[in-house]
Amino acid sequence: MVSNLRGLCTRSICREPSSQEYWQDSKTIRAEVHLLVITIPTRRLFWEDPYGREFDATVLKVDANKVVLDQTCFYPRGGGQTADLGQIQGVRVVGVEKDDASDIIHMLEKEASFKMGEKVHGVIDWNRRHRIMKLHSAAHIVYYIMQQVFGENCKPASSGLLDDQKERTDYWFRDKVDQEKLKKVEEEANKIIEEGRVIAAWTDQDGESRFWKMDPFPVMACAGTHVKNSREIGGISVQRGKKPGKGKERIEISLSE
Ligand SMILES: [Zn+2]
User: Per CATH, the architecture of 43-124 is what?
Assistant: First the structure.
């Protein structure tokens, strides 16, 4: 792409291109600019700073109520974590999805009034996102403690579902959940939360995979948003949820209010 652009610049300095050359070059540039737009994924500000609540961005694509920006604080639905809500230019964002090209598509409650190339300001619903970050971090802690208390064979039967109210994960259980042991999971998790352990989250070198780590637990692959310190979670309640099917039990985490 660079060589083509340079070619055009040199030629236009040396002499005016013929109308046919001009048309071909402008077509090439338009095609390449288009390619550039669709191959650079939306910059994920929610990974760079999960505490970012507001941002400025440039509109890359608009299709009725669907908007793609060059960067965003809005987390798209994925990995069991619900999408962020909020506003772009004062218009409510009612859903956020990721497409095959890794673009993040913001769904507005009505048709967008802004156009490609315009600057916009976005604001996420921070209280909701902060609750999601606390619950997501708590889910990792509970995941490891479940195995400590119920044994290594206590593995998740689902990837978990998370919104701002609850985190729900189904585990394989041959027998009914022992309520005393589940109470122990809650106590152990709250002990770790109170200890104020540092939580790290980072992207690997190719920029495609995200990881979570909190001592003494091993690294876990996770693209979600998390708090930086376990104490920020406050406290949690761990409950048995509605039975999801034979040989499974649903474990639900909620924040202590
Ligand atoms: Zn996670």
Answer: Beta Barrel (2.40)
Give me ligand 1 centre to Cα 232, in Å: 15
Q: Which residues surround ligand 1, an ion (CB under 5 A)?
A: 136, 212, 222, 224
Distance 121 CA to ligand 1 centre (A): 27
Hey, what are 160's tokens?
Answer: 């978990």
What are the pLDDT digits (tens) for 183-221?
999 999 999 999 999 999 999 887 778 999 999 999 999
DSSP secondary-structure letter at 74?
Answer: P
| Residues 59-89: tens digit of each pLDDT | 999 999 999 999 999 999 998 999 999 999 9
How many other C-beta atoms lie within 10 A of the C-beta of residue 118? 13
CATH number of 129-255, picked from 3.30.980.10, 2.40.30.170, 2.120.10.30, 3.60.160.10 = 3.30.980.10
What's the gap in Å between 159 CA and the centre of ligand 1?
A: 10
Residues contacting 220, CB < 8 A, separation 6+: 140, 143, 211, 212, 213
What is the whole-number distance in angstroms between the Cα of residue 92 and the centre of ligand 1?
Answer: 26
Distance 41 CA to ligand 1 centre (A): 21
* Predicted TM-score (pTM) of this structure: 0.82
